[in-house]
Amino acid sequence: MNTKKYNTLNKFYKKANALRLDSLYKEAAANYLNAILIDRNNAESYFGLGICYKNLNQYSKAIKYLDMASQIKKDYYDAFYELGICHQLEGENCGAIKNFVRAIQINPENPNAILQLGISHELCEEYDLSLMIYQKLIENSPGFLKAYEQKSTLLMKLDKYKDALDILHQLIIRNPEYYKAYAGLGVCFEKLGEFSRAKRYYKKFLMLKPFSSQTEFVKNRLQDLRIKNSENKHLKIL
């Protein structure tokens, strides 16, 4: 490639990256396409274009261009990882699993693809396999807190509240400020009929995170527990 062509390619590519970072995905996509017209073997341009389409919720197009990036650059971890995410978003869990496995083969030390592999199996209702993956991830990467959260959430989904309590306690030992764990502990204790302990953890959640997507849910649970407590006191008096 001659110098003039390379400089033009670089100009489009850098502009596309800057636009993508500013969340201007349509404008960024146009510049990635211009870069690809100059060099059809540039994996990074296909990758950037795929990410733009992913953020525009055009997952089939995203998969097309991310796949091109992965074909050009066979050890492109990010391309395989994002392919897995896009297949997940499209509801194509077999495609997601295949790409997460490839990403793990390229970089077995990165826990994110392993977590997403577990989530993909969970979406296929292969719960035992998912739990095994999450537990292995906890053992091999004990500081990766998302694995604890994902495993405890699945255990609660399966009504295994005592097992979930154990994982959530491990999580807050690792990070006492992990506010989502307190909401989970509240749910587990409530389901197990230990209402005073449930209230304590719900209140701890609200103290740590008074404004979040879970706040309304936690406030409602506390209100229901107060009503139950009031009804129980009334019955005792009668």
Describe it for me?
The protein starts with a helix and ends with a helix. Helix 4 packs antiparallel against helix 5 (77-89). The protein has a domain at 177-238: Methane Monooxygenase Hydroxylase, Chain G, domain 1, CATH 1.20.58. It is mostly helical and 238 residues long. Helix content is 80%, strand content 0%. The mean pLDDT is 94. The chain has helices spanning 3-21, 25-38, 43-55, 59-72, 77-89, 93-106, 111-123, 127-140, 145-157, 161-174, 179-191, 195-208, 215-237. It has 13 helices and no strands.
Provide a brief overview of the structure:
It contains 13 helices and no strands. With 238 residues, the chain is mainly α.
Annotation keywords:
Methane Monooxygenase Hydroxylase, Chain G, domain 1, mainly alpha, single chain, 238 residues
Q: Would you count the extended β strands for me?
A: 0
The radius of gyration computed from the alpha-carbon positions, rounded to a whole number of angstroms, is 23 Å
CATH topology of one domain: Methane Monooxygenase Hydroxylase, Chain G, domain 1
Helix fraction, binned, reads over 70%
Uncertain regions spanning at least 5 consecutive residues: none
Number of helices: 13
Average pLDDT for all residues: 94
SSE blueprint:
Blueprint lengths: L2 H19 L3 H14 L4 H13 L3 H14 L4 H13 L3 H14 L4 H13 L3 H14 L4 H13 L3 H14 L4 H13 L3 H14 L6 H23 L1
